[in-house]
Design goal:
With 491 residues, the chain is α+β, with helices and mostly antiparallel strands. The chain contains 21 helices and 15 strands. The protein has three domains: 211 residues, no CATH class; 109 residues, no CATH class; 103 residues, Phosphohistidine domain (Glucose Oxidase, domain 1, 3-Layer(bba) Sandwich).
């Protein structure tokens, strides 16, 4: 086991609980192989990365170095970050095109060796689509602040400034989440008039066929079903459908409105570039999860063949590393000792990259690592107020609903305050019910920030510890204009 006591770790992401080992392995390999560095056109690469204690971590030195590279290259080559965002989006489109080809192929006649080569290429495409994911997190740390600073200088009225910021942060291209939301709202209008008749039921089937992948989060969750859509329709029919559609109509004008704002405020060429770059990153980072989910569903012919030959389930396969998967396919079976590891990894696992070496720990090795690394958790129950970054202004009071696992998404009730480490496309049905949204992670470009602005739901991001401070049922007051959350006394 690699000893890492001297490494200063910092949480880079904490979405839901531990990710399947394969997902984290693919990201670690992007760092270890230099793939991420190649796309960023630099020789710099993070040295340490891990999944541990339900989070993904980078060492502090790598975070500082990563951020320094981005700032330096953007300063030397204005437009560099815009170009990288476009590369990111192109990788997403290439992944979908590749998976569309996979969806039309048959693999049952391939030998184990041939199938292993196909799977190796598929895994490479999975690495490519996510290789710039952490770049977005670092861009999010500093780049939107440049736009905020510009608006503070040019617009004195706080409400007007936030209105402009909302428009300038909205991508000109519609995300698939926004497209799905518009279509389901129009479907809700139709159901309200006619009920669930034959025509509506067919429309629901078509909706599921087009947007089922939005119910997933990469290797987790399940595609939307007709039952899921009917539940959402019943909920949406109780709300202000016309108001929500008007909001979406305004979002469609983002490009035109942004140009008007920049002209009115006399934005410089550099300031316009900042807006263009932010919009490109907002779209690319939201589209990556949509594209990845869609690609995995398209790849079912390949995945099904692999699962059939190995006599294994999908949620077991994704607990293996890439070398373990390839070796199993070549042998035509998963060895007993590996099956035991899968069982242990589903309980908890650690993926550790130290320089170019990647290790997976479970069972006794995992316990040893925890003993080495885990420190006593501080008692946060005394904290009555948190501050984060306002992402969508407004205010709300309500009871907390912690969303920690995919199953807890279904427990969300109308009017509750959604508290999560971060949000993903699979959180959208819960976000629609929330009176406010609070996250540990994120900035103005995060999924929670973008979707909350689209939904018109007050949102505070980047609180760091909201999921540790609040528990289900806590009454809180959210001031998303100032970014403050207060715990209220309960009777």
């Amino acid at each position: 086991m690699v000893k890492s006591k001297k490494i200063e770790w910092e949480i880079a992401a904490r979405r839901l609980k531990n990710h399947p080992a394969l997902l984290v392995y693919l990201m670690a390999d992007n760092f270890a192989s230099g793939r991420t560095s190649t796309y960023l056109e630099t020789t710099y690469q993070p040295q340490y990365y891990r999944q541990f204690d339900n989070a993904r971590w980078l060492d502090k030195e790598s975070i500082r170095g990563y951020l320094a590279v981005l700032k330096r290259k953007e300063k030397a080559q204005p437009g560099y970050l815009l170009r990288i965002a476009r590369i990111f989006y192109n990788l997403e489109k290439m992944f979908i095109r590749y998976c569309q080809k996979v969806s039309k192929q048959k693999f049952d006649q391939l030998s184990n060796q041939q199938l292993s080569k196909v799977m190796k290429k598929w895994l490479l495409k999975n690495k490519e689509i996510v290789c710039l994911d952490y770049t977005y997190m670092h861009v999010n740390d500093f780049y939107p602040n440049l736009l905020e600073e510009t608006l503070i200088k040019k617009v004195k009225d706080y409400q007007q400034r936030n209105h402009y910021l909302k428009i300038l942060l909205t991508p000109d291209q519609p995300t698939e989440i926004r497209e799905e939301k518009e279509k389901i709202l129009r479907l809700a209008q139709q159901v309200k008039k006619t009920g669930f008749n034959k025509k509506v039921n067919q429309a629901i089937k078509n909706h599921v066929k087009k947007f089922d992948y939005l119910g997933m989060y990469i290797f987790l969750g399940k595609p939307y079903t007709e039952t899921d859509i009917k539940k959402r329709l019943r909920y949406l029919m109780k709300g202000e459908i016309r108001t929500e559609l008007q909001e979406i109509a305004e979002q469609k004008k983002s490009g035109q409105l942004s140009r008007q704002i920049m002209s009115k405020l006399k934005f410089t060429r550099r300031q316009k570039l900042i807006v263009k770059t932010i919009k490109a990153w907002v779209f690319a980072i939201n589209h990556v999860e949509e594209a990845w989910n869609k690609g995995i569903l398209l790849s079912q012919p390949l995945i099904s063949e692999v699962l059939s030959r190995l006599k294994i389930k999908w949620d077991d396969l994704v607990q293996l590393s890439e070398p373990e998967i390839i070796k199993a396919i070549e042998k035509g079976k998963v060895e007993t000792k590996i099956r035991k590891k899968i069982t242990l990894r589903k309980q908890d696992n650690i993926v550790l990259m130290c320089k170019k070496k990647i290790e997976l720990f479970e069972g006794k090795e995992l316990k040893k690592y925890y003993a080495q690394e885990k420190k006593g958790q501080p008692d946060l129950s005394h904290i009555k107020q948190l501050k984060g970054q306002p992402a969508a202004i407004g205010s709300a009071q309500g009871r907390v609903r912690l969303i920690i696992t995919p199953d807890s998404i279904k427990e969300m009730q109308k009017g509750e305050i959604l508290v999560a480490s971060a949000t993903t496309p699979m959180h959208v049905p819960a976000m629609e019910k929330a009176s406010a949204i609070i996250t540990d992670e994120g900035g103005l470009l995060s999924h929670a920030a973008i979707v909350s602005r689209e939904l018109g739901v007050p949102c505070v991001v980047g609180t760091k510890i909201a999921t540790k401070v609040f528990k289900d049922g806590d009454r809180v007051e959210v001031d998303a204009t100032k970014g403050i959350i207060r715990k209220l006394l309960t009777n």
